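$ ./design --mode recover --in tokens.txt
reading tokens...
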């Protein structure tokens, strides 16, 4: 078929423009349909990534664990110690673990907010060598302000750690490898901020309240 002439193209564009002005809901419906399709495709990609990298997500031996190690539902939390939204989720998560004895919580340090975030993540992971991960984790989450190395070491001492030993352990290559694995995993899952959670087959970005956590756990149990 011959191409439209320039006047014909202009006439068609005018008709379309006038139609959309008279019926703006058509454009909104099209945008809604596009967004739904985009979310569906994104959800499929995330579920595929979770299935492909399940062992890294749920069973990395370098990832600290809280709650019930043999729990029937695992919550994997990607977080940054300088993230205010990560601090916001601490109490709801603690309450969930108190109320539900069958939850296994997996910690994934994802320091994305600058050098202080990296220092804090290194310190927390290194604290495992002294059996004090949970103590320093809680203290770092409760902290406010800067988390430079002197501050983190003071927090470590107050948490019962040997600060000199901790400083040495923070430089261990396996600490950096753990953080890099977490970063690579976040990229694979499409995580762009903290906190973010993997619960069952779902990736849930952002801070969520206790009721939402309970709902997601219930859905994960149904899907087992």
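writing sequence...
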């Amino acid at each position: 078929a011959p191409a439209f002439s320039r006047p014909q193209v202009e006439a068609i564009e005018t008709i379309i423009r006038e139609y959309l002005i008279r019926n703006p809901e058509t454009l909104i419906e099209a945008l809604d349909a596009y967004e739904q399709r985009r979310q569906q495709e994104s959800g499929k990609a995330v579920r595929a990534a979770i299935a492909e990298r399940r062992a890294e997500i749920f069973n990395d031996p370098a990832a600290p664990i809280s709650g019930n190690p043999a729990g029937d539902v695992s919550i994997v939390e990607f977080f940054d110690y300088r993230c205010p939204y990560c601090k916001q989720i601490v109490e709801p998560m603690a309450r969930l673990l108190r109320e539900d004895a069958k939850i296994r919580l997996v910690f994934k340090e994802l320091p994305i907010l600058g050098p202080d975030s990296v220092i804090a993540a290194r310190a927390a992971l290194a604290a495992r060598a002294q059996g004090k991960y949970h103590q320093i984790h809680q203290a770092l989450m409760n902290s406010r302000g800067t988390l430079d190395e002197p501050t983190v070491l003071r927090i470590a001492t107050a948490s019962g750690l040997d600060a000199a030993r901790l400083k040495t352990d923070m430089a261990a290559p396996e600490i950096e490898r753990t953080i890099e694995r977490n970063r690579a995993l976040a990229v694979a899952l499409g995580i762009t901020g903290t906190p973010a959670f993997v619960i069952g087959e779902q990736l849930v970005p952002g801070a969520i309240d206790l009721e939402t956590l309970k709902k997601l756990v219930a859905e994960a149990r149904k899907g087992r």
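exit 0
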